[in-house]
Amino acid sequence: xxxxxxxxxxxxxxxxxxxxxxxxxxxxxxxxxxxxxxxxxxxxxxxxxxxxxxxxxxxxxxxxxxxxxxxxxxxxxxxxxxxxxxxxxxxxxxxxxxxxxxxxxxxxxxx
Length: 111
Fold this sequence. Notes:
Elements lengths: L2 H13 L2 H8 L3 H15 L4 E4 L2 E4 L1 H29 L8 H15 L1
Antiparallel strand pairs: 1-2
Helix pairs in contact: 1-2, 1-3, 1-4, 2-3, 4-5
């Protein structure tokens, strides 16, 4: 299960439709459908009840959405933390070895 697929899944759930999700994600409707279908195949569960113009989460979809929200929140937090570390100027007198230790310590605290 990859992060990009979870983002697509969450967007379809939020938008209650594949076409609206595609517009929001700047993707084609078929690409969004394929991403969700792969996720459903991987999990061996239907995530959406597809009827007419509206899609609704199934019970499996509701369960996944709760976890997806948590996973994506942690992923976003980790990305922000790494960007902060990368953008922080290190002291000019800090050796490369010490700088590597500082960066590794920060990374370890985010894990």
